[in-house]
Design goal:
mainly alpha, 79% helix, 0% strand
Length: 461
C-alpha cells in the first residue's frame, strides 16, 4: 500500500511538532529498551545463580533464559492491547501508560529478594514482574513508531521513523554500559543497581512524552468518524496478510539481536570468564555505533526505497551465521569485539533502521498501530526464545546448533522481504517530492505556512 496518508487537510511537510515528537518517541523507546534489555543481560550473567541456585549450572542457565522468554510471550498481548487503544483513543495515552508500567516493574525487579532469602517465592515474583515488562514493552513500540511516522514530512518518513528505532540501541548501550560499571560493585548490587537506576530515566521520559501532541493523522481519522469500532478485529479480518509479512520481517531482526547480545554473551563468558568485561564493553560499543547506523539506514530508505536495505541486511545475516561463532571461539578479545560490532552495530541496526517505515506502511491509518504492533510483538515473542533454543541446541550439537538457528531466522527474513512489495518506490517518491515542492512554493508565496489539500495516494484505503 502507499506510504502516504489518506487525503485531507494536512501538510506534506509534516506537523510543526515533528522533530519534538520523533525525539520524544526515541527517548521513551530508549528507556523501554534499557529496562527490557537489562533483564536479558542479568539473565545471562546473574539470575541463574541468584534465583535458581539449587539447579546445576546448565539447568540454571536454561531456567534463567526461560524467565527471559516469559516477557516475550506477553509482548503480543501487550501489542494487541496497546494497538487497540492507540487506534481507538489515541497514540499518546498508550505511550505514557506503557512507560509507567515498565518503569514500575523494572524498579521492583531491582528490589526483589533472592532465592536464598525467600525460597521459591523469589522466582515467582521475578516471573510476575517480567510478565508486566512484556505487556508494557509490547504496548509501547507501535505507538512510538506511528507517532513519529504520522508527524513526519512525507518524503522523510523513513528517517523520522528511524529516530525512535535509534532509541533501541541507545537503551541497549545504556544498559550494557551500566552493567559494565555495576560489575565492579560488590554482591547483589552488581545486578540490582541497573534496575534501580532506571527510575531516573523513566521520570525524564514521562515528562517529555506528557508534552506531546496527538498524531495529526489519527485526529483526522477520528474527526471523520472513520475509526474502527474494534481495530484489533478489523486488522485480523482485513490485514492478516500484512501481519504475517511483519512477523517474517521481524523474526530475523529479533533473532539477530538476542542470539548475539544475550546468548552469545553467555556463551563467551561461560567458557572464558575473563572475557566478560570485553564482551560487555563490545556490546556497549556496538550499540553506540548502531544508534548512527539505525538512523542512517532509515534516512537511506527515503532515497532508494525500503526493500534494498532489508535484503542486504538479511543476506549479511545469512553469511555471518557460522563466522560469528568461529570468531567467538577464538577467545581473542579483538575478534570477540568484531563479532558484536558486526552482529549488533551493522546487521541488526540496518534491519531496525528500515523497520520503522517498512512495517508501518503495511497498514492503513485506522488499524496501523494494531497491525504493526501485533505482527512485531508476535515475532518478538518467537525471537525471545532464541537464547533458550540456542542454549539447548548447543547442549545437544555444540556451537553449530546455535549457528543454524541464527541462519534459519535470517532465511525467514529474506523470504519475507522478497515477497513484500516496495512501499516507497520510485514513482511514489517522485509524486511526493512534487507535492513537497508545490507546498514549499505555496508557503513561500503566502509568507506563512499553509496546509495543502492532498490528492488520494495510489492504493490508499
Amino acid at each position: 500500500m502507499s506510504t502516504s496518508a489518506p487525503a485531507g487537510r494536512r501538510s506534506v511537510l509534516g506537523s510543526k511538532d515533528r522533530v519534538k515528537t520523533a525525539v520524544a518517541a526515541g527517548l521513551g523507546t530508549s528507556v523501554e529498551n534499557y529496562d527490557f534489555i537489562a533483564y536479558g543481560t542479568a539473565s545471562a550473567l546473574y539470575f541463574g545463580a541468584v534465583f535458581f541456585p539449587e539447579s546445576d549450572r546448565f539447568v540454571g542457565t536454561l531456567l534463567s533464559f526461560a524467565t527471559l522468554a516469559v516477557g516475550f510471550v506477553m509482548r503480543p498481548l501487550g501489542g494487541a492491547i496497546g494497538g487497540y487503544f492507540a487506534d481507538k483513543v489515541g497514540r499518546k495515552p498508550v505511550l505514557v501508560t506503557a512507560m509507567l508500567v515498565m518503569g514500575a516493574a523494572t524498579f521492583l525487579i531491582g528490589a526483589l529478594p533472592t532465592y536464598e532469602q525467600v525460597g521459591v517465592l523469589a522466582p515467582i515474583l521475578l516471573v510476575a514482574l517480567r510478565m508486566l515488562q512484556g505487556l508494557a514493552f509490547g504496548a509501547e513500540w507501535g505507538g512510538a513508531i506511528t507517532m513519529a511516522y504520522e508527524h513526519a514530512p512525507w518524503h522523510r518518513r523513513g528517517m523520522f521513523a528511524a529516530i525512535p528505532q535509534s532509541g533501541n540501541p541507545l537503551g541497549i548501550a545504556l544498559a550494557s554500559g551500566v552493567f559494565a560499571w555495576s560489575d565492579t560493585l560488590d554482591g547483589s548490587w552488581q545486578w540490582r543497581t541497573p534496575f534501580l537506576l532506571s527510575a531516573v530515566l523513566v521520570i525524564v521520559a514521562l515528562i517529555v512524552r506528557s508534552r506531546l501532541t496527538e498524531s495529526p493523522e489519527f485526529q483526522e481519522v477520528q474527526a471523520s468518524g472513520k475509526t474502527e469500532k474494534n481495530p484489533l478485529l478489523a486488522t485480523l479480518a482485513g490485514d492478516w496478510r500484512g501481519i504475517l509479512r511483519v512477523i517474517a520481517l521481524r523474526v530475523v531482526e529479533s533473532f539477530a539481536y538476542y542470539s548475539t547480545a544475550t546468548y552469545l554473551l553467555n556463551y563467551i563468558t561461560e567458557r572464558h570468564p575473563d572475557l566478560r568485561p570485553v564482551a560487555l564493553g563490545a556490546i556497549t560499543a556496538a550499540s553506540v555505533l548502531a544508534i548512527a547506523v539505525t538512523f542512517l539506514a532509515g534516512a537511506l530508505t527515503d532515497r532508494i526505497g525500503r526493500r534494498p536495505i532489508y535484503i542486504t541486511a538479511c543476506t549479511a545475516a545469512i553469511l555471518f551465521a557460522f563466522p560469528m561463532y568461529l570468531l567467538a571461539n577464538s577467545a581473542q578479545p579483538a575478534l570477540v569485539v568484531t563479532v558484536f560490532i558486526i552482529g549488533i552495530g551493522l546487521i541488526h541496526a540496518s534491519l531496525t533502521g528500515t523497520q520503522g517505515s517498512l512495517l508501518t506502511e503495511q497498514f492503513r491509518t485506522a488499524t496501523r498501530t494494531s497491525g504493526a504492533s501485533l505482527g512485531y510483538q508476535v515475532a518478538a515473542a518467537i525471537g525471545g526464545f532464541a537464547p533458550l533454543l540456542a542454549a539447548a541446541l548447543v547442549g545437544a550439537f555444540g556451537w553449530p546448533g546455535a549457528a543454524v538457528l541464527y541462519l534459519g531466522a535470517a532465511l525467514i527474513g529474506l523470504v519475507g522481504i522478497l515477497v513484500t512489495k516496495e512501499t516507497w518506490g520510485r514513482q511514489e517518491r517522485e509524486r511526493v517530492l512534487r507535492l513537497v515542492a508545490e507546498e514549499g512554493r505555496a508557503q513561500t508565496a503566502a509568507g506563512t505556512p499553509v496546509n495543502a489539500v492532498l490528492p488520494p495516494s495510489p492504493g490508499s484505503r
